[in-house]
Amino acid sequence: MTLAQLVLPLLLSGAAGGGHEIVLILDNSCSMGVESRDDQGRRIPPNDPERAAVLGTLVVEGLARGSADRVDVLAFGDGKDAPPRPARSADDIRALPYSSGTYFRRPLEEAGNRLRGSALQKRLFLFFTDGIPEDLRDPSEGPRSLGLSESAEFETLVIGLFGSDEVRQTGEQFLRPLARDPQKDLIFVETPREVIGAFTRGYAHVLGSRPETGSLSPGQSKTFEVGKYVVEVLVATASASPGPAYTAKLEGPGGDVPAQASGDNGCPPGVRYAGAPKLCQPPHRHYQVFRAPNSPDQRSTWTLSLPKGSGAIDYGLILRYDLEASLAVPTTARVGETVKLDARLLFRGKTFDDETFFQADGFTAVATIEGKEVPLRHEGGGRFVADWTPSEPSQEGASTPVRVTFRNAWMEQSARRAVQVEGFLDFALVPNPASLDLGTWRGERNETRRCSVVDLSRSTNADRIPIQCTAQGAVEGGVLSCAPVAGSEADLGGGRKGQPLKYEVCFAAESCCGDIAPSGIGVLFAASHPHYAAAAVTVPTLVRVSETGWLRCWWPWLALAGGMIGFGWIVAGFVRPHDFDPAASVYVAGSEMGLKRASALTLRETPGGTRGFYRNARMCLNAGGDFVRAPRAAVLVLEAGPGGSTRFATAPGLERKVQRTGKWEPVPAEELVLGYTPNVVYRVGSLYLKWS
Predict the structure, then answer these.
(1) Considering the entire predicted model, what is its pTM?
(2) What is the DSSP string of 459-471?
(3) CA 318 to CA 411: how far, in whole Å?
């Protein structure tokens, strides 16, 4: 069992506003520690052979000892009408005998009487059991015996330890009604080792602190920093396994802190149980708890250590803040009327305002109302506020509970108030104007919008009752909307803001719309609460939007498309034309013999030999044998084609020499498109040419 689990009891040490009244019903039925037999003679082992429930109760008593906290332990009697067995001291708790039955009613009645009669401000009902009541037939009898209701001024924690799922399912029916909030206050454990952990988690939630837990081996120590506003440091330790006693050491700013309580969970001397011969025999689990004051005005450092030679221990640290939650709220309210919750933490009776504290250790502030959690917002000066609009009257005259909770990694402080929620307010809506004409306009390429404001200030209680404004009627090609105008909240006095009194109604025509002239549209003003449904009012709305027009709508896209086409045409003008092969060259001479002495000229180096804008590269030769740029002045024009090919664009009278016969022949017109053949001699007029 983790020591951290033992620490929880520390929480029992009351909060800054005073001590705690803790009434703990401890199930001492035989099924906890004594073996039994069923109807078929089969062995049924005990649910708590380690007396973990006794150990947890002893830790609670030890931590509360000598403080303003008061712990009363009640165990079952030996019959359904027998009074519960009380125990207040550690010796009394160890000496509680095991009962022959599981009787809930009388202990619940006594616990309720003690809690209601306590003068301490904070009270806790704690119940630990492993069985099903033999004296209750209906699960509703339990909370009636305890006096648990929404107005009951005490918290609850119920822990169930059951040996089987079947028993748990039956037992849960009786335990769930005894927990104020079953989601948080009802805990089930499967083994005795989990009992102390359940106590710890529950106390941390209910008693206003949150423990840090861990383990120490012999010779180890734990140093922890204690911040401002902590009025007390509580430490619980317990041996990690049954064995001899140990001595832990706690050292604070003032030196060593003496242990407040210590011992084990064994039975009183001479006690033996026939059905459990080893239950009271050593070794036992031991515990040791410390509780020391701390200055809330400054930070301090504390060290917990375990001397060598002892067995390992588990520990739990509790820091009790000198802080107390406070809540101010009207004692009465009406359904649908917004109520301001004003919560704060108090330090030494004054509003606590430390922004650094509020920003550290996961600090949160929430209100729990009508089964929902509402975040509180910090308005400065230590004030945390929220708006609450009651949705239903208080039931059967009972007040509606309102609870605020401040949490961080080490503490959880709560304050609870009761509000009597009365009937409904008078309510009537008078919108001004009673109808809207948003005008006439022509649609545009982009969305167009026209708005107008409806004023509800002439209405009755529209400043107090939440209102919803919704568009009525479907509109093809547009959207009608309604929203409150920021800053139009009513002034309810005393710095309180009411509901918005002005609403902006808008119609948005979609881009490139057709003709829009809807009929039967409007905005509906209605209270959020269904009780006021009959007071809903519709404000008819007129709107007329003429068609945008095709050219007006699409001209940017047309311009864009034209621009893109133009850009593509320009790019193609430079990219699409063909170039000569970089290695292609030509020889030109006035005779065939002269070709052998002529120098080669690369085609790309001739005028116009590289491609231009929408122009293939070309070689132009005039009758005098000069290369020119203009094709009109040339007798021979060779043009580049795709992939390094060529074609004769102009070549009147072009001849080629047949190597086989040595004769000249005209180049057929159909072959001019095939361009030149490398190393073949061509003749045009008096000029001889050869390409390579």
Answers:
(1) 0.59
(2) SBSTTTS-EEEEE
(3) 9
